[in-house]
Amino acid sequence: MRAYAHILLVMMVLTAPVAATAETSTNPIARAKAEIEHNCERVEYPPGFASTRDLTGDGLDDLVISYGVRCDGTASYYCGSAGCLTEIWIAEQPEKWTLALSAHVQGVSPTLYDGAPALKFVNHGGGCGRPGSESHISIRIWDGAVLRTVHENYERHSCTANPNSTGDTQ
Asked: For residues 63 and 29, is the Cβ–Cβ distance under 8 A?
């Protein structure tokens, strides 16, 4: 029953990623696992559940946690058409991270934007005013306070939040 309630909640929030509050942690992986294990009796953690990499260019390992786990035998407890719940934690100092983003995304990978470290997100099309099945791409950089969107597109078109727009550039 808990799984169905969570799935309903996920369906209600199939929007573009929203910046999280300035939550900090000395152990985001343990925090995420505690939350998951509170909601699931049996958990299977996939390879890549948590990965570290310098995402900001400051020499500190930042953290990406993907909640794409099997929970009580189902792969969809933390995932849906918008992707899996994903958290981005930025290292402020060794062993202290700030939650920069908590959102459902279909994919996230490191990239460069104008020579600076950045993250490329593949999002549900609904976040760009398009059908959910068509991906919306955003590039975000850490500006010291938030993951700021510096580029968006919708497959072969520019992104627009207007659901009545075609998204084509003029």
From this structure: yes
Which carries the bigger pLDDT value, residue 162 or residue 63? Answer: 63
Q: What is the model's pLDDT at position 124?
A: 79
Q: What is the DSSP letter of 170?
A: -
- Nearest Cα residue to 28 out of 17, 19, 36, 16: 36
* DSSP letters for 27-70: -HHHHHHHHHHHH-SSEEPPTTSEEEE-SSSSSS-EEEEE---E
1-15, 49-63, 135-149: least confident range: 1-15
Q: Two tokens at 108?
A: 């996230």
Query: Tokens 């500006």 — which residue?
Result: 143
Token pair of 33 as six digits: 């696992």
Q: At which residue do the structure tokens 């020579």 appear?
A: 115
Q: What is the pTM of this model?
A: 0.75
CA distances from 90 to 3, 33, 38, 97, 100 (A): 30, 18, 25, 5, 6
Using the structure block, give the residue that is written with the tokens 């990406």: 64
Sign for the pseudo-dihedral over CA of 94, 114, 65, 99: positive
